[in-house]
Design goal:
The protein is of the alpha+beta class and 582 residues long. It has 19 helices and 23 strands. The two termini are 36 Å apart.
Length: 582
């Protein structure tokens, strides 16, 4: 396994390398048995959700996590002593309410810090008559939102609530699809009469969605197929507002606001709910690993066996075309009737599954899935809060509302985002990257030493493969991180001097450390050709695979990426229903 290290400022102010620390989990099992009813490959949040539902139903289940820590991309790691980072995913919103209730996650330690302010976009502009540069702040207070937008356009302020209401209507309309198993097209068209009749119930969520959309079906069709820029230009005239909203359409995706279909990703990021609050985003106490730990504790409370540092080498498939379990990299064999993989479709079917057990057209289809990623995640420890020119604060002041939200930098204009995308499309890390900065320690006091803070920077666009055959070595990583820090310095002078240490994760790093193929945080692009009935492939959107007893339960299955848990829950329900026939 590759060494895990970060760059930390030494006494002389230079960045030196220090290895990461390791932590243990109280919910882990000690003895791996030779046989279970079900084996889950990967202890990410979806795998843990699947384990919890299966074990709760009486299915003896084991979770086998490759790394030393549970959570997959929803993980907390103390990268720098005293600083606990949500190393990959960093915000919670999309976790499905039913899962939250069914698994009693609050009882198992999940605590959320709600953000009253949603976004803060400071501008790079000269002060006028001694006033600081302008900024756009949006949050739960609707009248304050309109006042903020009015700085840039009174017209935009008038239509903003209407725009939000339309998106809310769309999100409420497609809600039935998120928690349901996609239409079983194979059973509907090729199955026996009994199977066809049973498959009819999978049409119900689509019918519900259609009825809820009603007269807005054409508008919905447009927003999921058109470029986000087209939609935003139609609604608004002020660039700071359009660019701020456009970030939701492209975050985590190798697309620009001009890309057809980018409007759906915008919807994907506003469909969340936290404890009854629609479209709310929050920080999890202790970092995102606390989400995974609460799910793991729920699973363990029902009797699930959970293990770390148990990398799977391959999946066992019998001559009868059914899975028989897995073999670990140390040669240990674990037998089971069910195997649910939380890994990406590519890892599951092209690396872990015997290729002679899969149809050629299935292998070709999996090999063509788009895993392109634009993301470099930079985790930063600082000794003070950033002091933004647009919202100056007195020395020593506690965190202000704009510190507690998503801070959008290099987002004054959609054209800036477009240019950043064009750079990466040519194999060059963006000259002015789109930066989403979050400071969870502004609300959560448990993750950083007193007076210090943890900063998450979700940046794009950075290509997986650099131009001219260059590799993402330490020099390339640090050159890019320095460029990002220079950008932050323009908005908040003194930021660079506050840095204690940093952890830089390029797309190849995200792939190597977290198993995210291509570094894609969604387990595959969230484009219309890779969603719903065709995620991961046509005729396999119901979590099953060509091998009986083998299921995909991660974000590479419907409904896709984000810390939602739906794929894990849905896959568990399908697998449980199939168990009696295996």
């Amino acid at each position: 396994m590759a060494s895990r290290c970060v760059f930390i400022k030494n006494a002389a102010g230079a960045l030196s390398i220090r290895p990461l620390t390791r932590h243990t989990h109280s919910c882990l099992s000690s003895e791996l048995k030779p046989e279970y009813d079900a084996v889950i490959i990967g202890g990410g949040h979806n795998g843990l959700v699947a384990a919890a539902y299966l074990q709760k139903a009486g299915v003896k289940t084991a979770v086998l996590e490759r790394r030393h820590v549970l959570g997959g991309a929803a993980v907390t790691e103390e990268i720098i002593p005293g600083f606990k980072f949500s190393r990959a995913s960093y915000l919670l919103s999309l976790l499905r309410p039913q899962i939250y209730r069914d698994l009693e996650l609050k009882k198992h330690g999940l605590k959320i810090y709600f953000r009253n302010t949603y976004s803060y976009t400071p501008l790079l502009e000269d002060s006028v008559m001694g006033k600081p540069p302008r900024s756009l702040t949006l949050g739960i207070n609707k009248s304050e939102n309109l006042e903020q937008i009015s700085q840039f356009s009174k017209r935009d302020a008038k239509v903003y609530l209407e725009y939000e209401a339309l998106l809310d209507h769309f999100v409420n309309s497609i809600d039935p699809l998120i928690d349901s198993i996609p239409v079983d097209t194979a059973a509907l068209t090729q199955g026996s009469l009994i199977k066809r009749i049973r498959a009819l119930k999978t049409l119900k969520p689509i019918m519900k969605t259609g009825l809820r959309l009603g007269q807005y079906i054409p508008h919905f069709y447009e927003i999921i197929t058109a470029p986000a820029a087209k939609i935003l230009h139609r609604w608004f005239e002020s660039e700071p507002l359009k660019a701020t909203l456009a970030t939701d359409a492209v975050i985590g995706a190798m697309i620009s606001p001009q890309t057809p279909g980018s409007g759906y990703v915008l919807l994907h990021h506003v469909m969340g709910e936290l404890e009854g609050h629609r479209a709310a985003w929050g920080y999890v106490e202790g970092g995102m690993g606390s989400v995974s730990m609460s799910i793991a504790k729920a699973a363990a409370s029902h009797g699930a066996s959970i293990f770390t540092e148990k990398p799977v080498d391959h999946i066992l498939v019998g001559n009868n075309g059914k899975t028989n379990g897995v073999v670990l990299q140390d040669g240990t064999e674990v037998r089971s009737k069910l195997v649910l993989s939380n890994a990406t479709a590519k890892v599951t079917f092209l690396q872990l599954t015997p290729q002679d057990a899969l149809p050629d057209d299935f292998i070709r289809g999996i090999s063509k899935i788009d895993y392109t990623s634009p993301v470099t995640k930079i985790n930063v420890a600082v000794d003070r809060l950033p002091n933004f020119l647009a919202t100056p604060q007195k020395e020593g002041t506690k965190s202000l509302p704009h510190h507690q939200t998503s801070i959008h930098l290099n987002c004054e204009d959609i054209s800036v985002i477009d240019k950043a995308y064009e750079d990466a499309s040519s194999g060059i890390p963006s000259e002015r990257p789109m930066i989403e900065m979050c400071i969870p320690s502004a609300l959560d006091p448990t993750i950083a030493p007193s007076g210090c803070h943890v900063i998450s920077m979700f940046t794009q666009y950075t290509p997986y493969a650099l131009a001219d055959g260059r590799k993402w070595d330490d020099k390339e990583r640090n050159d890019y991180a320095d460029r990002v820090f220079e950008c932050v310095e323009q908005y908040a002078p003194g930021f660079k001097a506050s840095v204690i240490g940093r952890d830089i994760l390029t797309p190849p790093d995200l792939e190597r450390i977290f198993g995210l193929t291509g570094g894609n945080i969604f387990h595959g692009a969230m484009s219309l050709d890779q969603l719903f009935l065709v995620r991961p492939l046509p005729s396999y959107a119901n979590y099953r695979s060509p091998i009986k007893g083998l299921y995909l339960c991660g974000s590479g299955a419907h409904p896709g990426g984000g810390v939602m848990g739906s794929a894990g829950r849905n896959a568990a329900l399908v697998a449980f229903a199939d168990l009696k026939t295996l």
